[in-house]
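Hi R.,

Here's the chain you asked about this morning:
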Amino acid sequence: MCLVFKFFLISSREKFIDMNRYIKIILLLLVSARLSGQITYDRIEPPFWWTGMRDTTLQLMIHGHRIAESSVIVDHKLVKAVEIRRVENPNYMFVDLLIPRGTKAGKIKLVFQYQREILFKVDYELKERAEGSERRQGFGREDVIYMLMPDRFSNGDLSNDSMEVTCMGSRKRSVT
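And here is the predicted structure, written out as tokens:
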């Protein structure tokens, strides 16, 4: 009788261990499925900007897994998000910022939310513009140099050719 009870106890214990394994595997699969669908942040372009620019608007391109499903709040007393644009690709979002004159260099906190839950916060850097940089002139019409070269396919002097043209336009080497 004791042997039968021992056998029953061992088999129940093994069943419990097997059931524990299955539960752990199922939980692992559920957690990995949840993590694979998470909204993530990868990068922002441009990676930083400057204060004191003539144009006070800036468009940020934000890339991350399913980032377009989130909303963005700009946590700064002067800088405001004017418009948030989502495109067909869910991994991109465009945020138009208004950086008013007088904004000091520092960090702007971008808060990403999904269904009113904060997912993550990103610091975006505003750098101080270098003194005298506003006097620099950008790329203009006078910067373009035209490279003129003779057309290689137009023949202006047939007397200096070493090839003979046939009636169909093909060339054959002339013997001289």
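One quick note: The chain has a mean pLDDT of 78.

Cheers,
M.
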